Amino acid sequence: MVPRSIPPRREQRGRQFSNMAYLKSDAEIRVKKLKKVINYHRYLYHVLDQQEISDAALDSLKHELKKLEDKHPGLITLDSPTQRIGGKPLESFKKTSHRAPMLSLEDIFEEQEFFDWLERLAKIIAKENLLGGLASKYGKPALFAEKKYDGLALSLFYKNGVLKKAATRGDGETGEDVTQNAKTIEAIPLRLEIMSKLDVDEKKTETAVKTAVKSGVLEVRGEVLISKKEFARINQEQKKQGGQVYANPRNLAAGSIRQLNSGITASRKLDFIAYDLIADLGQKKHSEEHKILSAFGFKTDSEAKIFEQPEQVFALRKKTEEERDKLLYEIDGLVVAIDDNILFKKLGVIGKAPRAAVAFKFSPLETTTKVRDIIIQVGRTGVLTPVAILEPIKIGGATVSRATLHNEDEIRRLELKIYDTVIVGRAGDVIPDIKKTLKDLRNGQEKNFKMPKKCPVCGQPVRREESGAIHRCENKKCPARSLRQLYYFVSKQGFDIDGVGPKIIDALFARGLIQDAADLFSLKEGDLAPLERFAEKSAQNIVKSIALRKEVAFARFIRSLGILNVGEETARDLADYFGSLKKLEKAGCQELEKIPNIGKAVSQSIYDWFRDPYRRKFLKKLLKNVRIKNVKEGKSGKFKGLIFVLTGTLESLSRDEAKAKIRKLSGNVSEIVSKKTDYVIIGKEPGSKLAKAEKLGKRVIIESEFLKMIKDM
């Protein structure tokens, strides 16, 4: 150790400090301070989503702590940050009994079921005279509602503030000791400290909490989770390596916490959200327990609230279900409980579930039903798509009676027959589809399905393409093809004609007022007025909306034509490259393939479209009433020849705004990362494109870097 009377030279202080040969007493003080600082920054990062120092700086502190503990093994404690990963892989998990049973919850799905639950509680409360002075101002006990995270329940046992044991739920009475793995989860404190202000009703509770941290025994229960982003990353890696692909984040979280090798658990970046405190610290309400858990440095549901009336709970459930897809973690509903702990205990347990709490679940994203029939839908490009007609079911909050079957190969994969019982799934706004056929439930009345050889709409022959999966109606004048093309033409992806949707198109088509999109632009108010449900005002509005779209940008015009494999980005690329419709019409496949992100299949479909006699006739008819606006968007050539890909959510501008700025500088935007990509711009929660960019060695930039690049616009 350098004598204190002779300070080291300034330029050497930093290097000598980290390598100092501490006396044991000095080392002990330093270790305690390091642990406290590291735990504080763990709390900031993993609980509050804040960061005061860089990852590298925090790693440096951990490294110093590890070196000190290596030199002075007697200073190693169970709550040290260095003990999160350690020890050789376990041979098996030991069984461990819970101090208090980990109960399950009764599931309810409908608002009426919620009212029924409250009514049952009211009868018990009245009969046993349990309420006393516990009623809210509405004469009913207050309710506490929090998100029901879809993970693995875990119990954490602390003694004198130090984590001693972590156990899975198991059968509720006995679980498995997974302490070694739980320590790898940064969101779980190894030592409890009061990290924030205690907001509890009584001073004695605050005193009891502080005492428990130093010398008490308490248990914290919560959910082990894995984020949707991390779930996608791990599954992608598993696919590459030919390993197990997990069905959902819950299964992955459960599999990760039960790894015999804690190093594997650590690599999975698990998280933990606390929801229950098993300890008598004088708290009278469950909502107070959430405050105590937050003060201890645990994550809790920040949107959990006390409610006085059921309708308030319904509003929260609806809001949460609508935002469900945007959340970091999977949730499947709310947990609603009587907030008062005394009343909660008095109401008791029935079976393995407490009477005073329920899992108020969202409408399921998967459920079972029967296939009544399989019909064929003919799309705008003539593709025949089989659609299952289902016995109506509620799924994802909506009644469903149809599910797409995609193509003949999918029916074969599912081994599906008419009248089969199936599992139907739906995610967000995606069209429901059939996940699995339950063949064991067949009774012999099921019927095989075969794809038709003739179009069910026009009766013309159907061609099966070389891939075998796609069947297509060859009749370009097929009414079904015309209708679907019209729907697309007027939609936001096409000309974006306000107020003109499928119902209006159906009415116009059925009366013979239009045969194709070009006919829309010659409609007059008098043509629409005689139609049922068309008042004079609506007829005026429709004609006005159509007239407003008689002038259109070249890129939108191209996209609206419905050319196979040509979407928004390809349409823009074509518009920027050719500059006029005449040049695009004359282009051969070789010239088309010179454009970034246009390969042989896309170039061939563009080439074929402009040489088809039926489509050329339609184009000529359309151009009589529609004018294409000037096409070149690029004013500055700063990004000329560069291809950008965007992934994740940008904070300062929307993705469309970012694309517009790139194009204004003559850059190109692509939806896929390829060898031709120049820059990949990443925002929050980037998807698989980031991994692809890193694999190909492409330049990855964050939002602030991109903003600097366009600063002079």
- For the record, give the distance between the C-alpha atoms at the N and C termini, rounded to a whole number: 58 Å
CATH level-two architecture of the largest domain:
2-Layer Sandwich
- Tell me the Rg in angstroms: 32 Å
Mean pLDDT rating: 82
Based on CA inertia axes, which overall geometry fits? Answer: globular
Number of strands: 26
Overall domain count: 6
Q: How large is the count of helical segments? A: 26
Biggest beta sheet summary: 5 strands, mixed
Strand order of the largest sheet: 2-13-10-3-9
Low-confidence stretches at least 5 residues in length (pLDDT < 50)? 1-20
- Structural class, please? alpha+beta
For this structure, the CATH topology of the largest domain is D-amino Acid Aminotransferase, Chain A, domain 1
By CATH reckoning, the class of the largest domain would read Alpha Beta
Which range does the strand content fall in? 15-25%
